[in-house]
Amino acid sequence: MSAHRDLRISGERLWHTLTETAQFGAIPGTARGMCRLTLAEADVAVRHWFIAACKALGMTIAIDQLGTIRARREGSDPALAPIGIGSHLDTQPTGGRFDGILGVLAGLEVVRTLNEAGIVTRHPIEVIDWTNEEGARFAPAMVASGVFAGEFTLDYALAQKDRDGVTLAEALDHAGFAGPVEPGALPLAAHFELHIEQGPVLEAERLEIGVVEGVQGIRWYDVSVKGQTCHAGTTPMALRRDALHAAARLAIAVDAIGRSDPGQSLSTIGLFQAFPGSRNTAPGEVRMTVDLRHPEVAGLDRMEAALAAQIAALEGETGCTATLSPIWSSPPVRFDPNVIAAIAGATQRLGYTHRAMLSGAGHDSVYTARVAPTGMIFVPCENGISHNVAENITPDEATRGANVLLQAVLDYDASAG
Amino acid sequence: MSAHRDLRISGERLWHTLTETAQFGAIPGTARGMCRLTLAEADVAVRHWFIAACKALGMTIAIDQLGTIRARREGSDPALAPIGIGSHLDTQPTGGRFDGILGVLAGLEVVRTLNEAGIVTRHPIEVIDWTNEEGARFAPAMVASGVFAGEFTLDYALAQKDRDGVTLAEALDHAGFAGPVEPGALPLAAHFELHIEQGPVLEAERLEIGVVEGVQGIRWYDVSVKGQTCHAGTTPMALRRDALHAAARLAIAVDAIGRSDPGQSLSTIGLFQAFPGSRNTAPGEVRMTVDLRHPEVAGLDRMEAALAAQIAALEGETGCTATLSPIWSSPPVRFDPNVIAAIAGATQRLGYTHRAMLSGAGHDSVYTARVAPTGMIFVPCENGISHNVAENITPDEATRGANVLLQAVLDYDASAG
Question: What is the pTM of this model?
Answer without folding.
Answer: 0.80
